[in-house]
Write a structure and sequence with these properties.
Helices cover 41% and strands 20% of the residues. The chain has 312 residues and is an alpha/beta fold. Helix 5 links the parallel strand 3 and strand 4 (132-137). The longest helix is centred in the N-terminal third of the chain and has 22 residues, at 69-90. Mean pLDDT is 89; it is low at 308-312.
Length: 312
Amino acid sequence: MSFSDVPWRQVDLNLLVAFAYLYRCRSVSMAAEQGCVSQSAMSHALARLRRLLDDELFERKGHTMEPTEYAHQIAPLIEQLLDTVSDGLLHKKHFVPEQYEGVCRIGLTDYAELNFAPVIYDRIRTAAPHAQVSFVNVNRSNYMTLTEQEKLDLVIGSITEPDQAFSSQVLYTERHVCLVDPAVFTTELPMCMTTFAQTEHALVSPDGRLTTQVDQLLAMAGLTRRVTVASRNFLTIQRLLSQRRLVAIVPRKMAQLACEDAGLTYFEPPLRVPDFDIAMLWLSKRTGDDKNAWLRALVQTVLTAPDDLIEP
């Protein structure tokens, strides 16, 4: 019999509770007393149970109500069902990181994944040594869909004006810098605005566009630039900058990694490029969830800590 074939209107959870008391007490009056109902109400429940399960269930023998063979057969199942309702639904377990054996699912933009995946992983595993961590790449266009599909606990990145189904918290503000190979630009750093505009540009472009607000700022100064290459992946841009006469405007934390990993260098842009916020997002309906609250506090502690990276 499938779920849709069951006459659910006839099924009352209280009937299973009545069965459990009757099976334990072997007496209608004692079962009624323990269940805090009248004897007539317990008798009525037994009559309904007999009709529902098509079995006598309890037969009077002397002063006791002895279970039938079928009652003995279903008693463990009914006890298990009631325990599941009690423990799984009515008594919510408090989240204990040290005992958690599930998965922490976090959506990260390219920027956030490159910069923070290792440290977030380390902190989670330190606090919850039995947990697993799943990082899912997201962007401004798909984070809503992926949060539902992948059951993401959090999303981290530069996502402005999040959907109304999400709550958000700004973690810190990031600024832009210019990134180049110092072996190529031996005597021209830092660049003036004219040199900056005349140099070919590499562009980190999450949406594939070849123009940004930088072009508008240059136009206000009567200048234009030429973007000769763009990629959605910062590591691709990092490799392209090496040994090439290219400049890229990137977030400072990405530039710091590139300086460490690829021997590049960064400097302040010759024009004011607006800063941007890095935020943490989560579905509002999960705000009160113990695990989600713990994970939010952990991420906030990690990502709002003082920046101790060494300036080049």
